[in-house]
Automatic annotation (TrEMBL):
Belongs to the ROK (NagC/XylR) family. This is ROK family protein. Residues 53-97 form the HTH marR-type domain. GO terms for molecular function: DNA-binding transcription factor activity. Pfam families: MarR_2, ROK. It comes from the Bacteria.
Length: 434
């Protein structure tokens, strides 16, 4: 099987060599594809061997199964170099043999592929009310999922770490995978997160989450290397890698659920800001509402008004005016269900949806003026509703400035988990050959 892409081999080898000899410091920048290599250093045999192995490993991951001859053609490396490097990779348990392929007239080639089951990576999405987790192989293919609702006394940092460890072990038991084969974990937190220090500065929807050293706590609890990132940023990474924003360099992911936040991509890289608070749009003021100071220990005005609880409050107020507040089948509806009613033509639900769309459109207009993104992706349990997306888009079309395209999330509630898996895969990639 011929891999192709021969004309790009030289560029690819040079890129991988630079990556191998000058690893980047920020895992989330690695995952988003931004890389400015430092000045080239003199090559050394060990560096070249490592670069060759990494090049071939990358090719196997993307294009396998294939033969060694395919790798020679696609990499531009000599046959002896490929054979030597594959032997090294195979000795590390990263290659598996599949048997003979189809012959083109001579001896049938032996097919090999990257052994994705060599190790696994885990993802955790810590929400305001529940924890969701995923386990994936080294190709990023999910092999297990796990989720649980937090009890009232389980939202403090120590309890969340304990529940997360329980979920990790449960996924390993489901799949008969030893926990020792889990090479990395990325956890998303619903608050301002210092990725470099691994600290959640504050998470208003959780209990006691101020200056929480979550990365070190999870490392101690699970024994696994860990990255900690803002949950909405992870969702943005997920959508960029394999979702609604795939291939879009400048976009904003807006998450609406229990909270409201944004993940900002500029030139293909996550934008964290000088103090890690870029995208905390839940603190934006709302036109027509009284001005109020932004206080980290409280939820922001925008979040209170169009987060899930705010939408449900608007619904209850309209039921009260209509004399329907005592109808439990109506009063107990959650925000997405209210929007479902609006989709069906219910007048009260349409009022709530219109109220939400107007406020959301104003917030998006602000983001569009500041960042001028090509695309806005709406996600989260509330934001991904198709009717809300269409109504918001209609309101934005009236602007003279070219509005961004509006699209709902392709990955839905799995976006954070897929983004976390992407970061973990990038983090372990350089260590596979060590």
């Amino acid at each position: 099987m011929c891999i192709g892409l021969i004309s790009f081999a030289g560029i690819f080898v040079k890129f991988v060599y630079n990556l191998a000899t000058h690893p980047m410091e920020n895992p989330s920048r690695m995952a988003t594809g931004t890389f400015n290599p430092p000045e080239t250093q003199p090559s050394r045999p060990a560096h070249l061997r490592f670069a060759n192995c990494r090049t071939l490993l990358q090719l196997l991951r993307v294009h396998g199964p294939c033969s060694k001859a395919d790798l020679v053609r696609s990499s531009g490396l000599s046959a002896p170099t490929v054979s030597s490097a594959i032997a090294q990779i195979e000795a590390l348990g990263l290659v598996e043999t599949l048997g003979e392929g189809e012959s083109s007239g001579g001896r049938p080639p032996e097919l090999i592929q990257f052994k994705a089951s060599h190790g696994y990576v885990a993802a955790a999405d810590i929400g305001g009310t529940r924890l969701r987790m995923m386990l994936a192989d080294l190709n990023g293919t999910p092999v297990a999922h796990w989720s649980t609702q937090f009890a009232a006394d389980q939202k403090d940092p120590a309890s969340v770490c304990s529940v997360l460890d329980e979920g990790l072990r449960a996924m390993c038991q489901q799949t008969n995978i030893p926990t020792s084969k889990v090479l990395h974990l990325t956890a998303g937190a619903p608050g301002i997160t210092d990725v470099r220090a691994g600290i959640v500065r504050f998470a208003p929807n959780l209990t006691g989450w101020t200056e929480v050293p979550l990365r070190s706590m999870l490392r101690k609890q699970t024994g696994i290397e860990t990255i900690v990132e803002n949950d909405t940023n992870l969702a943005a990474v997920g959508e960029y890698r394999q979702g609604a924003a795939e291939g879009v360099e400048d976009f904003v992911f807006v998450a609406m659920g229990t909270g409201v936040g944004a993940g900002i991509f500029l030139r293909g890289s996550l934008h964290h800001g000088a103090r890690w608070s870029a995208g905390e749009i839940g603190y934006l003021g709302v036109p027509g509402a009284p001005r109020e100071p932004m206080e980290m220990h409280k939820t922001g005005q925008l979040e209170r008004m169009i987060g899930g609880a705010g939408i449900e409050l608007q619904w209850l107020e309209r039921l009260e005016r209509a004399g329907l507040r005592n109808e439990p089948e109506l009063a107990e509806l959650r925000a997405p269900q209210i929007f479902d009613l609006a989709q069906e033509g219910d007048l009260l639900a349409l009022e709530v949806l219109q109220y939400t769309a107007v406020i959301l459109a104003d917030a998006i207009a602000t983001l569009a003026l500041v960042f001028n993104p090509e695309l806005i992706v709406l996600g989260g349990g509330v934001g991904s509703h198709d009717r809300l997306c269409r109504e918001t888009d209609r309101l934005l079309r009236s602007a003279d400035f070219a509005p961004p395209r509006i699209r709902t999330s392709f990955l839905g509630t799995q976006a954070q988990l897929h983004g976390a898996i992407s970061l973990s895969l990038t983090a372990v990639e350089s260590k596979l050959l060590c």
